[in-house]
Amino acid sequence: MTRGREDFHVHTSGFSDDAHSPLADVLAAAVAAELDVVCLAEHVRASTTWLPDYLQAVQEARPQHPGLRILRSVETKILDTTGALDLPPGTEALDAVHLADHQFPLDHPTHPDDVREQLRDGRLSVDDAVTALLDATCAAMGRVAQPVLAHLFSVLPKVGLSEQDVPGAALGELAHVAARTHAVLEVNQKWACPSARTIAAFATAGVPLVASTDAHEAAEVGRWSMLDRLPHNGSPAPDSSGC
To answer: Which residues form the PHP domain (predicted)?
Structure first.
């Protein structure tokens, strides 16, 4: 796939409560940006009830845009070190699931400010924090059929750490788990992550790389400022039988 011809993480106002543009406007923007693929990644919780309506709405929209491959995903929080996910029932029909580190996955989902405080007063070490995040991410990838790593490591700066705190060997193992579980790594424009070091490790392991704006309004869809961070031989987006 040509770099920049996909946007693998966008939201619509019909289903994500912090988005500003309806589905029709988002898809029109994807066509205007001459995208080949757009992946909707609506925010969900275990209590979400609108999943059937979402699946139906996208299914009905597909014939109206025959040149655009429209994928249906949801963005869910990784909750803890077991890889538990904040997912509602019925996700088997999705084309992908975006796994996100909105909170820090210790033995329970922990607000980044609380983790920062634990690191500062010595109740939590840097090594233990990084290990917990890696364990949670590895386990989460094994829980769904089409995992997408959404803004990987975006939680680290929120707790006062960086991707450089992830040891190279551990990063390589995470990339190999991603390859084994057929995960996809997004390069997220909104959060400016992951780093070039992380991207290189995943590319070396053969993990597909995709570009994502994390757009919350139609005007942002497919509008890039970070494509130079994707390798020129970036892997294509995964196929989906529903498209």
So the answer is: 7-79
How confident is the model over 95-106, as pLDDT tens digits? 999 999 999 999
What are the percentages of helix, strand and coil residues in the chain, rounded to 5? 35, 20, 45
Long-range contacts of 168-175 (CB under 8 A, 24+ apart): 168/201, 170/130, 170/131, 170/134, 171/197, 171/198, 171/201, 172/201, 172/205, 173/134, 173/138, 174/134, 174/137, 174/138, 174/201, 175/201, 175/202, 175/204, 175/205, 175/207
**Residue 194 forms part of a structural domain:** yes
For the entire predicted model, the pTM comes to 0.92
- In a domain, residue 20? The reply is yes
Using the predicted structure, report yes or no on whether residue 120 has a pLDDT greater than 90.
yes
The CATH number that applies at residue 125 is 3.20.20.140
Neighbour order of strands in the sheet with 209-212: 6-10, 37-43, 69-77, 97-100, 147-149, 184-188, 209-212
For the chain, the domain total comes to 1
